[in-house]
Automatic annotation (TrEMBL):
GO terms for biological process: formate metabolic process; respiratory electron transport chain. InterPro entries: 2Fe-2S_ferredoxin-like_sf, 2Fe-2S_ferredoxin-type, 4Fe4S_Fe-S-bd, 4Fe4S_Fe_S_CS, Asp_de-COase-like_dom_sf, CT_Formate-Dh_H, Formate_Dh-H_N, Formate_DH_asu. It comes from Pseudoponticoccus marisrubri. SMART domains: Molybdop_Fe4S4 (SM00926). Keywords: 4Fe-4S, Iron, Iron-sulfur, Metal-binding, Oxidoreductase, Repeat. One of its GO terms (molecular function) is molybdopterin cofactor binding. Residues 227-282 form the 4Fe-4S Mo/W bis-MGD-type domain. Residues 142-172, 181-214 form the 4Fe-4S ferredoxin-type domain. Pfam families: Fer2_4, Fer4_7, Molybdop_Fe4S4, Molybdopterin, Molydop_binding. Residues 3-83 form the 2Fe-2S ferredoxin-type domain. In the C-terminal section; belongs to the prokaryotic molybdopterin-containing oxidoreductase family. This is Formate dehydrogenase. One of its GO terms (cellular component) is oxidoreductase complex.
């Protein structure tokens, strides 16, 4: 089957790989055969319906559609025969008759016009379509326009929606010439269940479906009217979708997905339509210094900071920022200053930030949002696997037959990864979803375990106890690659599913079945998210997942692996780069003398302290205790994201000196003494590392507004004002230095990234695109063995009681990013989800006497908020789901700051709450 096929194409001998179509071979050979219903992007099935790509095959009576015809040995194919050309012309003429003229086209830059030209057709002899029969303009969606007079029924939008993104919103209704795309049954697009990924818009070859931003009031535009096209990486989540930015007049006009290793051309609503936050009038454009008499508090209007801040030159602001920190260092010691770095910035920026704190202040009090995120997962992975990163890319699900998704909601939070998960189920893969909420993936799940929140350890232990009881484990794998199995086995004996069903809410038969399905997999993957990590027993939760993978031998082979879905676009990279209080870059312990002396060699001094630093939440506690008096905060918004924000805000207010470097005047910046305006991601160059360990290059596409500057350059200037004598002219210089101390970057160079866009680490040679799967030959631990660490049941810190009878769980929504600083300033995203909201079960709302859309009061031991309540059957009757993006009803006024002892992560996913009608 692997044999190449030889055939002739227009008289030339060419070869095809098995499965290749004539169209693909022709393209490789330099002949682009006209095509409309065929999309040259991975994931699109050829349909062969438009007949624009017909070729002649010798000996065959009828012409063949080259996009879906595979060549056979010795076949003689002509793209240039008179018959083929005449046929393609006829098709184009017929289609042209159905389209508005190019002068008045919805999209004068549509792919269709190129193809008409390539076919040699400028006008049609045929009568135009009867306008009466065409559905009217549908402008019901904020982000997209539907103009079906340009529809050629090619069906690409249906395939985009159903087969690529697997959303099943678009279908064709009507017959023959009167068949048109419809949304759901026949809703206007804006009222349908469309999630606005825009895949259909990207696929449409004619402009029948278009970005609203490209057309004017008369529905005319030109998608190719841009000045430059720049390849970069989406700045939102850890999937790391590669994008092409179309820039016009210095602004991003439109975004398209390109073929990155993670996204294969796909995007979600934030990546495609959420880019415009960078052009929002609230952008910080000038350095700001607090007015002497301005009180610190949440009191600054981001559209007019002049009440509390005055504009300053960069010189003045950098001097003030550095002198304030240096004064504290000199008066109280370096320990009195701490830093929060950013997972929204590049690897180079993260690296420089941790270097500034370590070198400039002689200690390790530097951390970032990973602490609130996968810190517990990383703690468990480091402990038991020897490495914190994923063992396999999420795309490996292609080779799996079973997958578990637990405590993660990828349809909303990693939407492009979710498209691959959904496709996996369409191919027959078994998907086991475990979540207290009926998350979007449940529609695709073979097993949906909607269990009690906080009961992950008993649930996972009961699954593993069945695997032990029924002898379904992989003894050969366990013997060869693990340690502590006997102990784990004994421990699990106490967790028969019948014994823990009351705790988990899942009946024993279901648990047994799930255990058999997962243990029976040829290759199984485990994906997890914040539902696992954000608990006081988050490390135990992850230990269970690691044990489950190990006992079934599901690590280190295709289609198998452990994959904590990383959150921020660069949280993997920021952690790798050393924005962690116990680790220098590449997770090398600050307590290790050899490691410190290696960095002393690279940095030219022995500034690194051998003492582990404080974590995010410990730093804020230390501010309250008076031990920390100054902070440098880069691209984080703890005044919204920290658990117990009243405590965090009081800490920020109590600092003697706070420097905030952000793109907006955030809630955190409200407490700043100096605000440094930064360039946003699309305004700078740098590398980022996604959840798949793929290091990718972001390229500057537009200039930053006003005097805003790239983060790395600001940090360098501050370092030099602190006396550090740094010389970096470009992020590439920083990257070169990082490579000296980071083996993970071996074989990855800036030049390679410029050429290839992405390289996965580890990369074994200068040619190796990187290893999607690691640990086939053992683990980076003593003896090459991974470890089973048994986990016992620890209940959540704050149980519901008579006073606070509900369980509060917090998380995310598709359209908003964390604290809302970016997405609430994006026109489309804010229009789709404009109002603070929480979700309750309809029966609960009825009992409370609140109509869906009415207001409720949520109260915990820490505070209260009032906001709109949605009715949602996916939420258990005794739970409230609350997103944390809305300052006017900030979730973290309510959440419990109790910490996991290993990862030091707070229990964002469980608090006791009282709910009442407002
Ligand atoms: N749209 C959007 N996407 C994002 C982000 C965003 O802000 N907005 N943020 C990014 C970041 S940094 C991160 S870390 C990721 C997070 O991505 P996810 O991990 O998917 O995030 P969450 O919505 O916080 O929580 C996931 C799930 O945990 C479930 N859960 C709650 N309690 C429990 C429990 O006790 N056990 C289990 N097993 N599950 C429970 C919730 O019901 C929820 O469905 O998303 C990234 N992507
Ligand atoms: N209740 C609750 N709270 C949570 C969580 C939860 O599930 N529930 N999840 C936690 C998790 S997983 C995370 S990761 C944290 C996230 O917490 P944060 O990291 O504090 O949240 P973001 O809103 O992402 O903050 C990023 C900041 O970076 C700025 N920014 C964006 N781009 C740039 C840039 O290029 N340069 C600079 N200098 N700044 C930039 C943005 O304006 C924003 O202010 O929240 C945590 N808090
Ligand atoms: Mo996160």
């Amino acid at each position: 089957m692997t044999d190449k096929i030889s055939f002739t194409l227009d008289g030339q001998t060419v070869t095809a790989a098995p499965g290749e179509t004539i169209w693909q071979v022709a393209k490789r050979a330099g002949t682009v055969i006209p095509h409309l219903c065929h999309k040259d992007q991975q994931g699109y099935r050829s349909d062969g319906n438009c007949r624009a790509c017909m070729v002649e095959i010798e000996g065959e009576r009828v012409l063949a559609a080259s996009c879906c015809r595979a060549p056979s040995e010795g076949m003689q194919v002509r793209t240039d025969s008179a018959r083929a050309e005449t046929s393609r012309k006829l098709v184009m003429e017929l289609l042209l008759a159905d389209m508005p003229e190019r002068e008045v086209a919805h999209d004068a830059g549509a792919h269709f016009w190129d193809m008409a030209e390539a076919t040699g057709i400028a006008e049609s002899r045929f009568p135009t379509m009867d306008a009466e029969r065409i559905p009217l303009l549908d402008d019901s969606h904020v982000a997209m326009r539907v103009n079906l007079d340009a529809c050629i029924q090619c069906n690409l939008c249906v395939r985009a929606c159903r087969e690529v993104q697997v959303n099943d919103v678009i279908g064709m209704a009507g017959r023959g010439h009167d068949a048109f795309p419809v949304f759901d049954m026949a809703d206007p697009m804006g009222d349908s269940t469309c999630v606005a990924c825009g895949e259909c818009v990207q696929a449409c070859p004619t402009g029948a479906l278009m970005e609203a931003s490209v057309v004017d009031a008369d529905q005319r535009g030109d998608s190719r009217d841009f000045d430059a096209e720049i390849a970069s990486v989406c700045p939102f989540c850890g999937v790391g979708c590669q994008v092409s930015l179309k820039v016009k007049d210095g602004a991003v006009k439109k975004v398209e997905g390109i073929n990155g290793p993670a996204n294969e051309g796909r995007l979600c609503v934030k990546g495609r339509f959420g880019y415009d936050y960078i052009h929002h009038p609230h952008r910080l454009t000038t350095p700001l210094i607090r007015r002497a008499d301005a009180p610190k508090g949440l009191n600054v209007d981001p559209s007019d900071p002049s009440t509390h801040f005055r504009e300053a030159t960069w010189e003045e602001a950098l001097d003030a920022a550095a002198q304030g920190l240096a004064r504290l260092r000199d008066a109280h010691g370096g320990q009195s200053v701490a830093g929060f770095g950013s997972a929204k910035c590049s690897n180079e920026e993260a690296y420089l930030f941790q270097k500034l704190i370590r070198q400039g202040f002689g200690h390790n009090n530097v951390d970032h949002c990973t602490r609130l995120c996968h810190a517990s997962s990383v703690a468990a992975l480091m402990e038991n696997v020897g490495s914190g990163a994923v063992t396999a890319t999420f795309n490996e699900i292609e080779n799996a037959d079973v997958a578990i998704v637990i405590g993660a909601n990828p349809v909303e939070n990693h939407p492009v990864a979710a498209t691959f998960f959904k496709q996996f189920t369409r191919r027959g893969g078994k998907l086991i979803v475990m979540d207290p909420r009926g998350v979007g993936l449940r529609r695709y799940a073979s097993h949906m375990l909607q269990f009690r929140p906080g009961a992950d350890v008993p649930l996972l232990n009961s699954i593993m106890s069945v695997i032990v009881e029924e002898g379904l484990y992989d003894q050969a794998y366990i013997d060869r690659f693990t340690e502590n199995w006997e102990h784990e086995k004994q421990h699990l004996a106490g967790f028969a599913p019948e014994a823990v069903a009351d705790l988990t809410g899942i009946d024993a038969a279901t648990v047994r079945e799930v255990a058999r399905v997962f243990a029976g997999a040829q290759a199984g993957m485990i994906f997890w998210g914040m539902g696992i990590s954000q608990h006081i027993h988050g490390t135990d939760n992850s230990r269970c997942l690691i044990s489950l993978a190990l006992m079934t031998g599901n690590v280190g082979k295709p289609g198998a692996g452990l994959h904590p879905l990383r959150g921020q676009n660069n949280v993997q990279g920021a952690s790798d780069a050393g924005l962690i209080p116990m680790f220098l870059p590449d997770y090398q312990s600050v307590t290790d003398d050899g490691v410190r002396s290696a960095f002393a060699g690279i940095w030219g001094d022995d500034a690194v302290s051998p003492e582990k630093g404080l974590t995010v939440t410990e730093i804020l506690d230390a501010v309250h205790a008076g031990a920390i008096r100054g902070m440098y905060i880069l691209g984080e918004n703890p005044a919204m994201s920290d658990p117990d924000v009243e405590h965090a805000r009081a800490a920020l207010a109590g600092l003697d000196h706070l420097v905030v470097q952000d793109i907006f005047l955030t809630e955190t910046a409200n407490y700043a003494d100096v605000i440094l305006p930064a360039a946003a991601f699309y305004e700078k160059t740098g590398t980022v590392t996604n959840t798949n360990r793929q290091v990718q290059l972001g390229r500057r596409a537009v200039a930053p507004p006003g005097d805003a500057r790239e983060d790395w350059a600001i940090t360098v200037d501050l370092a030099n004002r602190l006396g550090l004598g740094w010389h970096y002219a470009h992020p590439r210089d920083v990257f070169a230095e990082m490579k000296q101390g980071m083996k993970s970057l071996d074989n990855i160079t800036w030049d390679r990234l410029e050429q290839e866009g992405a390289v996965t680490y580890p990369s074994l040679s200068p040619e190796d695109p990187g290893q999607p799967i690691v640990f086939a030959e053992g683990f980076p631990r003593a003896g090459g063995r991974a470890r089973f660490t048994p986990a016992s049941v620890i209940p959540p810190d704050e149980q519901p009681d008579a006073e606070y009878p509900f369980v509060l769980t917090t998380g995310r929504q598709l359209e908003h990013w964390h604290t809302g600083s970016m997405t609430r300033r994006s026109r489309v995203l804010d229009a789709v989800e404009p109002q603070a909201n929480c979700s309750l079960h309809p029966a609960t709302l009825r009992k409370l006497g609140v109509a869906p859309g009415g207001d409720v009061v949520l109260e915990t031991r820490r505070g209260r908020i009032t906001l709109m309540a949605r009715s949602d059957r996916a939420v258990a009757p005794d739970m409230v789901f609350l997103p944390f993006a809305y300052v006017e009803a900030a979730a973290n006024i309510l959440t419990n700051p109790a910490l996991d002892p290993y990862g030091k992560i707070p229990e964002f996913k469980f608090a006791a709450v009282r709910v009442s009608a407002a």
